[in-house]
Amino acid sequence: MTTAPLLWQPDLSARRKPLLSGFIAQASAAAGKALDNFAALHAWSVAQPQEFWPLAWEFCGLAGDKGAVSLLPDADPMNVRFFPEARLNVADTFLKNADGREAIVFIGEDGRRMAWTRSELRHEVEQFAAALRAAGIGAGDHVAGYVPNMPQTVAAMLATASLGAVWSSCAPESGPDVVVDRFGQIEPKLMFAADGYFYNGKTFETRAAIAEVAARVPSVQQIVVWPYAGDAADLPEGMTAYEAFKQKDAPALDCRPMGFSDPLYVMFSSGTTGKPKCIEHSGGGTLLRMLVEQQLHCDLRPGDRMFYYTTCNWMMWNWQVAALASEAVIVLFDGNPMYPGIRRLFDLAQAEKVTHFGISAKYIDASQKRRNRPVESHDLGALRVVLSTGSPLSPEGFAHVYADWKADVQLASICGGTDILGCFIGGCPVLPVHQGEIQAPMLGLDVATLNDQGEPVEGVAGELVCRNAHPSMPTQFLNDPGNARYRASYYETYPNIWRQGDFTIRTEHGGYVVLGRSDATLNPGGVRIGTAEIYRQLDKIDEVADAVVVGQSFDNDVRVVLFVVPAEGVVLDDALTARIKTEIRRNASPRHVPAKIIAVADIPRTKSGKTAELAVRDVVNNHPVRNLSGLANPQALELFADHPELQA
């Protein structure tokens, strides 16, 4: 693997050193030796978890009593226990120092702006918590949100947490079948919702969908709705407006003490590999991991302003909201990030003086294709960190950020997921950024790339794994006797080693290149090819608006089939087909060149916006699609079924 160009080098002599520098000094004192660089710090954090995690607790400001024992080890990582004696409630950390500083800024697609201070947020949580308690919600009960990305959603989650109850959410654009597949498994007692939402310049009414979900999930005893798109006076019978639900004379917030590993969230898998799994996560474990990721890996400080484009379907919502626990401001946006144009989010970043700007790799690619240059059109002087996730960020995407957005930023491409409510690999403010590479493994996680024999490799592709336990591993899957699905999901390939399902290369810099999902990896002639290696070449071709590549079983082998959506007004003719093949052959390899390139009108995607490669692969190979409800546009699969060009 050739050395990737250097795009950014941190200035560690600057007056404002990153928080990580201070942590390294404290870790060196705890270790009794100088930890001179990030590699040494990371090695210590993995080798001495019983010292690292308590130090991280104190340094990052997690409120609560951590107890005398930080770790109960076990040969089986699923049986390791962190802070077994701890007593805490994460709402105390989220809501600490409730003063007049801003806490949440909300920008709607329709242009409305709402801002809450830290004291206003705490007061809102107090009123919600008192109302939830009066409604019979207590520790271990489930509360659901069918909600937009709004301040009220944050307050509802924190009120749920303060009582020791468990929160789950779906975005309002999710259809009733999708929501019922998820909420029906967790059996919530109460459901928060909004009466509609805005997207792409249109208003969408959701009251009928809310009523249908409630009717099909009989555990729901009460529906609380905030009027976003309509009028609270028009709510149907059985729905309570949130202003009427709140207790205006609520007492001061008194959070229920919980164990470190007691549940707070249930997240849902995409559902493209079967019925959505209900992945339960702890409050203490996930917040401690997020504090480490945000403060030490992203240099998030009190007063910083964190924006991440997300919906309440995606774990990045939980991740962004965690920034409140570092006394940062969270800047929320709900709507189409490209309406009325690609500059919408840069307008927001400029107006709100965003310091941490998070977006998907797909958005960065779209920005590049539209020749967007905010470096010329916007004042991004406050911006210090750009975050990217959702799919592998191409080298061209890296270059676009530095050339066309801002040259002096830490570009932290991150890779993790719903499975751990965090990252395995991501940014590091004391390390350089090389084009196309994720900077480093996360502190406390023994991350590696393994070959098929379970041996660590560098410079060649293999499976991304984590070889130790850490605090934000799921506590369990719901409805999973004996943890059978949990163990099969992560520990089946390598005994006692978590396999994430991402195909990666560990680089000579100690960073990582992510090639795509390993379960969607192509294998023509026995040579493993990551799909991202093909998408990367397509990103350079403006005539291709979207694409999906899969392996088709054919003639006792696997052949690569590429489906493309041509840009508006473009036809996939012989010339464009030849150009695509040439670009792939030149910049990847002859092995990467598709045997078939076929035009289609649409590409199926999951609710979180990811390309549904597995669903397309199943249809192409005449296998049953394991869960249509996980797709945002399942009708698109019809374009691939029995396609005549696949028969020859």
Regions with little confidence, pLDDT below 50 for 5+ residues: none
Q: Helical region count?
A: 19
Radius of gyration: 24 Å
Q: Count of DSSP E strands?
A: 31
Class of secondary structure makeup:
alpha/beta
Terminal Cα span? 36 Å
Q: Tell me about the biggest sheet?
A: 7 strands, mixed
Mean pLDDT: 93
Shape: globular
Spatially, the strands of the biggest sheet line up as 5-4-16-15-17-18-19
Which percent range describes the beta-strand content? 15-25%
Q: What percent of the residues sit in helical stretches (DSSP H or I)?
A: 25-40%
Could you characterize the architecture of this molecule?
Residues 99-469 form the AMP-dependent synthetase/ligase domain. Keywords: ATP-binding, Ligase, Nucleotide-binding. Its EC number is 6.2.1.16. It holds the Pfam family AMP-binding_C. The chain has 648 residues and is α/β, with parallel strands linked by helices. The chain has 19 helices and 31 strands. Strands 5-4-16-15-17-18-19 form a seven-stranded mixed beta sheet, with helices on both faces. The mean pLDDT is 93.
What's this model, at a glance?
The protein is α/β, with parallel strands linked by helices and 648 residues long. The strands form nine sheets. It has a seven-stranded mixed sheet with strand order 5-4-16-15-17-18-19, sandwiched between helices. Strand 27 (498-506) and strand 28 (512-517) form a beta hairpin.
